[in-house]
């Protein structure tokens, strides 16, 4: 032990004995002798003094010493905390004893003098009284260490309080000679080990608990290394609390880590999935679902298996190991001999909990049924039931409410026009064909509705005037086909107008009062901007459409994507009679049956879809029909290859990675290219910026960061996209329902898009050089077009003063 440590411990032991027993004059003399001895040991200038020298002389020598002055001052402060130890008058202590003690403290421990506010304005006796209270104040500061709760969670919650306490200025200044550094390290070591133990939920809890016990015992043995009030009173009481905390953890862990394992369903449980047991010599891999009801984990879990059928188990013993609370499965392989209808597997499951040496066990039966045997797999290899092409007739599934709503509007006595909007690939065109199919199928002699369907490509021309003329010609050709040849007009001109269609419609009404016409204009949002932006052509075009759909025998159905809002925004007053029919993803709450029908395709697909598969599928696509079909097509492909018609969540999960790898940017390009109300050049720049934001999002996801604006800005990786532009772009993604905002974080509406973006899309969204050039050119043009204040001042410099004639 260091000389200073020994001096402090020896004197502290004497002070403790003096305080606990009757403070007699003889004991006071012994303690005073110990104080003078300690001062001579600590300070070189005091070594020459004899035992007969007064305390005043010892204090004076310590003050003048070049070494040990701080230790001497701290020793003196400690003694002043015990009444009756140090003489406080000149007769007993020597000349000017109080003033000299103050001088020693102010020189040796100026930090403590400052903390105790021993300024020059205070008298000597007042300063002495302040020093007498230092030790008592310190004990009060340390009291929380002695009264920590023994409840494990509450004890752990006081960790920061202990750390803050050890940083107190007075504690650090006063306790250093008493072993504060060692005690502080021990406090932190013990408390950290307990906090970490409380976070352990795995099979290593028992070992971690033993590590905590070992740490505690080691620190407890260190408690006897010093003999002073810090170790004997404070640290010892802290360790006593820790002992109670560890005992409580040990007791609570028995219930905390108890666990019960059982089969997922009541025995005998019939597996949700059926297996190809009808194929001889078929190796079948199956999963027996089990559940750990917790709350703890099971360790050293073992399953003993047996079967009663004409099947051979791959192994009769499965070492499962650790089973966390919740559901899991035992993977089993069986080799089918001759075809069988079912297999019964007998399972004996045994395990033990983390805090128990006794093993628990349970026995149950699992029934595995065979799949359908009448499936022509060779024929299915040539089929494509999940085609993503536009659906016609019976190929269209779901959307019953949408189809019925549109059909009913067109079948009213006064036909009601509509416009359909939605993202690309949500089935707008298929919906239009479904409406057409229903109307034509249900037409009668008394009520006949003819459908004229036109895509934008049917009448698109290089300019707006030519496009309007081609559209008029295309519609007129269909309408005029119903007018007898002798009554048809010789020539109809649609130069800059669709007005002649109104005369044709009126003539048809007079000839065939019961015959009506539905004009479907698909991809309507791709028309030339000059056709809907303010101008003479746009005003004439939409006035013609408004008048046309007001005819009793004519209705319009405009179908468009994300640019439709810009058209409605510009010409909404002309289209206010059209009813809006938005088309979105399948709703989980309102269109679940339609979604299931889309996946199952019961009329054309022999696959058996289980509920778990449908739920898993929806979690990937959020009901988007196009991506749902893509995953279903991959599942169908795998099923045909495996000759396995059952689809569970496992099959859906298996299909997704392969599908994501196969998809290119064209499968998702509309997410960053659509919904831009600009010309071609500006649209390219906006799409490029959107791509950069998506790349930044992918980087953030790869780094495991939350999708906050700050993290996305940090991950943008290029100065070409200023941080200030990212939030508006994110807001635009939210407006278009590509992203949605929750709190301060963003998330994808379409989960499969996020997975593709993170896995493959980030590397494929390479910066477009053309887009970069356009962005630079536009920025340069904007910079040149900017009119600065000096230019304005120069321009108006020669202007005459304005005079208001009024």
Structure keywords:
five-stranded mixed sheet, five-stranded parallel sheet, 5 domains, 34 helices, single chain, disordered C terminus, alpha/beta, Immunoglobulin-like, 806 residues
Give the strand content: 5-15%
Q: Largest beta sheet: what is the strand line-up?
A: 2-9-8-4-6
Shape: elongated
Structural class, from secondary structure content?
Answer: alpha/beta
Helical proportion, percent range: 40-55%
Within CATH, the superfamily of the largest domain carries the name P-loop containing nucleotide triphosphate hydrolases
* Distance linking N and C termini: 103 Å
At the fold tier of CATH, the topology name of the largest domain is Rossmann fold
Mean pLDDT: 86
Q: Regions with pLDDT < 50 over 5+ consecutive residues?
A: 802-806
Helical stretch tally: 34
CATH classification, class level of the largest domain: Alpha Beta
Q: Tell me the Rg in angstroms.
A: 44 Å
The total tally of domains equals 5
Please name the CATH architecture of the largest domain.
Answer: 3-Layer(aba) Sandwich
Question: What does this protein look like?
Answer:
By secondary structure, the protein is an alpha/beta fold. It has 5 domains: 3-132, no CATH class; 137-256, no CATH class; 261-369, Immunoglobulin-like; 400-582, P-loop containing nucleotide triphosphate hydrolases (Rossmann fold); 667-785, no CATH class. 50% of the residues lie in helices and 14% in strands. The strands form 5 sheets. It has a 5-stranded mixed beta sheet with strand order 2-9-8-4-6, with no helix packed on it. It has a 5-stranded parallel beta sheet with strand order 11-12-13-10-14, with helices on both faces. It has a 4-stranded antiparallel beta sheet with strand order 1-3-7-5, with no helix packed on it. Helix 22 (536-549) links the parallel strand 12 and strand 13. Helix 1 (3-20) runs antiparallel to helix 2, helix 3 (55-64) packs parallel to helix 6 and helix 11 runs antiparallel to helix 13 (180-198). The longest helix is centred in the first third of the chain and has 28 residues, at 229-256.
